[in-house]
Design brief:
single chain; about 110 residues; alpha/beta; 4-stranded parallel sheet; globular
């Protein structure tokens, strides 16, 4: 979907307060999203903070900046059990963001990264 698709997705996603529906799993793997796309997608994730259990952004070139966006957006999540960030072009700073998440998200059981 790319960054533009992510922007449209975030813009047109229903608000949880108006629909009563909550997002439990979000798989955005292989969508050519960068940190810009993550900014848009995380707007959706923040509205589902209490229910999102799986977040998959595998094979997107989000780099460290995108991981920073994800980290900031999900650090208060109380239900995330799985985070997938394989082949996202993360470097040392991205690993720091992930380690910070491990210290605050106590529900996380599966972390996939390479």
């Amino acid at each position: 979907i790319g960054n533009k698709g992510a922007e449209l997705l975030a813009k047109n996603s229903p608000n949880k307060n108006t629909t009563g529906q909550l997002l439990e799993e979000l798989d955005l793997s292989l969508n050519d999203l960068t940190s810009e796309g993550m900014e848009h997608v995380m707007k959706i994730v923040r509205t589902s903070d209490a229910t999102l259990s799986v977040l998959d952004v595998n094979y997107n070139p989000i780099r460290d900046n995108g991981m920073a966006v994800i980290s900031e957006s999900i650090k208060h999540n109380t239900s995330l059990t799985e985070l997938r960030v394989e082949n996202c072009n993360l470097a040392a700073k991205g690993a720091v963001y992930i380690s910070q998440l491990l210290n605050v998200i106590h529900t996380l059981q599966v972390l996939r990264m390479r």
